[in-house]
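Hi F.,

I've been meaning to write this up properly since the lab meeting, where we talked about keeping a consistent format for the predictions we share between groups. The idea is simple: the sequence comes first, exactly as it goes in, then the structure tokens exactly as they come out, then a line or two of notes. No screenshots and no reformatting. I'm using this chain as the first example so we have something concrete to point to.
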Amino acid sequence: MQTGRHARGLLAILSAAIGIGCLRAAYLMLGAASLPATAGDAVLAAVLAVCGIVCVLGSLLLWFRLSDRPRVETENTPRFGRYGAGAEGSSSRLVPALAVMALAGAAALATSEFALLRYVESPSTVAETQETEEPAPSTEPAAGPSPSVEAVAPEPAVPVSGEPKPAVTSPAAQETAATPPPAPPAAPETAAPETPPAVTTVPMPKPEAVPTQADGHRDAVVWLSLAPDGKSFLSASTDKTIKLWDMAGRQLIRTVATHADMTRVAMFLPDGGQIVTAGDDGEIVLRTLADGAPLHVFSTKDHGGVNKIAISADGRRMVSGHSAGTVLLWDLEKRAALHVERAHGWSVAGVAISEDGKRALSGSIDGDLRLWDVEGGTLLRYWGGHERGAYGMAFTHDGKQAVTGSGDRTIKLWDLESGRELKRFEGHSQTVYAIALSADGSRVLSGSLDGTARLWDIASGAELALYVGHSGPVYSVAFGPDGTILTGGYDRTIRIWPEAGGGALSVLAGSPE
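Output, unedited:
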């Protein structure tokens, strides 16, 4: 008897947990990643909502019935009413029904996990979902109102039967009077002229030709990293490649390395002779810049793809965020993991590390932010920073504040000691996907799915410059040398801009489609 009660109690608790998870997933399915929900999302969200409500209510009912029974029952204790013979029947029928619904809810919850991950699996997929299809130029004349033509109606015939007749004085006159005069001929109808209206057809202007180069990136450019000496920079693309570019000559030097799946990150270490790359294949690779040869591979395949990494200013510490929701803290000198944190319930969308390497920040696609102590691996603070995914982020130079960009289209400045929002930068019309901080810490650079990059003043919150030119989302931004800005995006190009704004100084083209 007691064993059965314990099993039912565990079922009630498990069902309640699954129900709450289903309700939370249903809410996120309709609001994740600033993308329009598909018909499949709506159906899955409805299933999750039904399973969640039934599981929660069923668990409460089962728990109530268990807790309402006498705590001490013996063979000699008479039972009456709802505790009497047959009282187990309704509870016994509830248990299998609740178990089946809990299993259905768990299956729907697992399905929603994969559905939500598609919003951060591939930036190119996100861009294709959000693009607006342009109508083809029309070759037919534009329809318009015809000129007004006033039709002339025929005049009615004058009736003669109602007029008085003259007196008849002779048979001839009578015969003449008896014969009615012929009716006047009807006026002919006036037909409206069928002159067609004048039409002026103005063709759509031809789209601006995007330059291409055979050895450029074949897919979205999702990461840019300037070399410590400012003479070159790295780019990572979802075409699985990492390329090195000459800053002064503004041309490709060579393809440095590739990954087995989409590449997400390529960063210089402080010495400039080594780089770290990572991607959806679940590998973080330490390489030599000269030939791209791997020096060490940090395999994190059990944690899913590597979405973002950040490295401290001295190159000793690193943080990585993964699609399984985990955050890994690393000692790069010893080439070992310091801590593995199951940090978020959803895929990690952004990470940052302080310049001294002591604290790290992570954000997930549900908008939650978590602050970590790197050495101890302890969670210092967590809060719901954004309404949707937190993608780009960076610490200020003193490590006391951080800037985050999000799917809710805002950029926020946080006080990390209190978790309080200090300032909000608004202007982007779509997800803010990338964030970079200037060398002096006074300006923030942002890239967005709205196709623009923007420069902001941290002290005042004012927008300083707007960079428009990419034919699609901007996924990567970086500060260049000598007052320049670097941006890369969905159109496979890398553009170099004057920091003050205006047209691009140079366009480093992608490969032909």
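Notes:
DSSP finds five helices and 28 strands in the chain.
The helical segments are 2-29, 39-67, 88-121, 123-130, 171-178.

If this format works for you, I'll send the rest the same way.

G.
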